[in-house]
């Protein structure tokens, strides 16, 4: 079952499942409010499977759930420092500033992030996060301060571990609630040989 909630104008949900044969999932998600009018979304993919992967992901999750309104590169560096005794993980973070209407993101490893919108021809991919090579907790690359891009009502942020296939953005149901959409993507596009997690966050335009 998907986790879901609302942060300001952002309706979000995350759905995950472990690789078949494992009880625990090594992929984790984070959705928290930061500062006065912003939200932090993250997907963490612990290396490998099973409990060691889950332990690495939980370590980063704890850092991010208690994040203040620091820059994303600082948060990634703190995750790296706290995870040195774990297997490490791929992590992508996205911060949405509600007042400015700006999205910033940074990724190390292979957790994808895409900002999409509905278009007459189908799906319009507005932008995709640039992913840096490395492993958080083992080898962290130099991370530049991320640039911002506009995020508007109707935009949908889709973040996914590499347990989701490359067709995950096809035929998105923009009319569906976020939790339904996350479950649909997970069921239709998860790979058989890996843990899988997808987080979606839709800009609804106004806070509840």
Automatic annotation (TrEMBL):
Supply the SMART domains for this chain: PP2C_SIG
Task: Tell me which SUPFAM superfamilies the record gives.
Answer: PP2C-like
Q: Which Pfam families match?
A: SpoIIE
Q: Which domain of life is it from?
A: Bacteria
Q: Which InterPro entries match?
A: PPM-type-like_dom_sf, PPM-type_phosphatase-like_dom, Ptase_RsbX
Q: Which residues form the PPM-type phosphatase domain?
A: 9-202
The record ties this protein, via PANTHER family, to: PHOSPHOSERINE PHOSPHATASE RSBX
Q: What is this protein called?
A: SpoIIE family protein phosphatase
Question: What organism does the UniProt record list as the source?
Answer: [Mycobacterium] manitobense
């Amino acid at each position: 079952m998907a986790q879901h909630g609302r942060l300001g104008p952002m309706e979000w949900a995350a759905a995950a499942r472990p690789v078949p044969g494992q009880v625990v999932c090594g992929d984790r998600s984070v959705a928290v409010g930061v500062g006065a009018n912003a939200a932090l979304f993250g997907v963490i993919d612990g290396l490998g499977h099973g409990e060691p992967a889950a332990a690495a992901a939980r370590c980063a999750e704890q850092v991010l759930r208690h994040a203040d309104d620091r820059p994303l590169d600082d948060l990634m560096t703190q995750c790296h420092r706290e995870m040195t005794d774990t297997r490490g993980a791929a992590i992508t973070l996205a911060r949405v500033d509600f007042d400015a209407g700006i999205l910033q993101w940074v990724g190390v490893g292979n957790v994808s992030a895409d900002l999409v919108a509905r278009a007459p021809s189908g799906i319009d991919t507005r932008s995709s996060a640039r992913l840096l090579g490395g492993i958080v907790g083992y080898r962290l690359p130099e991370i530049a301060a991320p640039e911002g891009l506009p995020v508007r009502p109707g935009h949908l942020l889709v973040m996914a571990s590499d347990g989701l296939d490359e067709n995950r953005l096809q035929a998105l149901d923009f009319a569906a609630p976020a939790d339904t959409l996350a479950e649909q993507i997970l069921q239709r596009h998860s790979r058989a040989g890996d843990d899988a997690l997808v987080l979606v966050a839709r800009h609804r335009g106004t806070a509840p």
